[in-house]
Amino acid sequence: MPHLVILYTGNLDAETDMTALCRSLADTMLAAHDDAGKPVFPPGGTRVLAYPAPHFAVSDGGAAGRAAGGDFRDPGDYAFVYLNLRMAHGRTPATHKRVGDALLMATKAHFQPLFVRRHIGVTLQIDEGHEVFDAKHSNLHPLFKNPASEPHV
Fold it and tell me: What is the pTM (predicted TM-score) of this model?
């Protein structure tokens, strides 16, 4: 763990590259450091997954946005993006804020071209806690071990 899951309205698929957003957010997570300057997230455990909602209803369906006029070329219903970062416990509130701010900044930068032409809501939440069950199986982590730090046998 950490896992960043993105749920978004499917109307965004034709307007932006969600794979590029996933890569940007993963890179942002991997660049994050804690209060002591150590990486916050392990490379082998960092995952960003995005799921479009093909069926959705957001607020009033775009009526207020169309009535407001302006330069928006909103094609109809609003768009919405929900990002949820789930991480293991033990990080400081300052680290949570630093990670959250960096992820929000990267998300806003990705969607900036769309913000000028359509209405989009973005929510980012970070959850931390103890799992009641936690099982893992992965052959990714060995890829990131430092051979110099391995004991010589």
Answer: 0.84
